[in-house]
Amino acid sequence: MRCGDVRPAASVSPLSGDAKELLQSQGLEAFQRRFGDFYVSSFAIGGDSGVCLSMSSASDDQVEDLLIMADVHVLFWTAEVEIAHKHKEWHMEQRSLALFSHDTLTSESFSNRWARGVTDADMEGARRQAVSFADKVDSMQGRITEALQELGIRDSADFDWQRGRELWRRGLVAELTLLPFSSLREVQQIVASRSG
């Protein structure tokens, strides 16, 4: 769920005074060694929540009949005699279960696999957990709106990076947009002035 993007005002440079000075005095390579290649140009406010419950089942029914017969010959007489007879039947059932869930607003993550011997109690427990997380998925928009209101953030509000840190801490930053420093006009102008 995404509720909007946060971008600094166009008049705000992502370059600090120290960054500009380093770029002017030592060039782009030294600048990138210290500050990296990318800066955060914006971030999306929102959250992610999901749940996946899967089950597989296999059953096998087998029947085995073993009959041993013998022909007995005595002079001119022949008889067929049953020596042994075994009859076996068996049924095998195998179930596996997996539950995966996450919620970025509560920092919850759950993963469990029941590979063999899944009981009805296991199935019910997994179902309850899946329903609990499904409720979180359904309430995501309301929970995000409530958290933004608690922080005093409204549509088109003045925004500073300190508030961005608080959004991050609360799990409300869903995506970061990174752009290369070299794409900034200010960086291009400083680099051009050094080589010119």
Set out the fold topology.
Blueprint: E1 2-6, H1 17-35, E2 38-46, E3 49-74, E4 77-103, E5 108-114, H2 120-138, H3 140-150, H4 161-169, E6 173-180, H5 185-195
Antiparallel strand pairs: 1-2, 2-6, 3-4, 4-5
Helix pairs in contact: 1-5
What is the molecular shape?
A: elongated
Summed up, the helix count is 5
Unreliable sequence segments: none
Average per-residue pLDDT, rounded, comes to: 84
Q: Report the major sheet.
A: 3 strands, antiparallel
Label the structural class.
Answer: alpha+beta
H-E string: EHEEEEHHHEH
How would you write the strand order of the largest sheet?
1-2-6
The percentage of residues in β strands lies in 35-45%
- The Rg value, from CA coordinates, equals 34 Å
How many domain regions? 2
The total count of strands amounts to 6
Helix content: 25-40%
The N- to C-terminal Cα distance equals: 48 Å
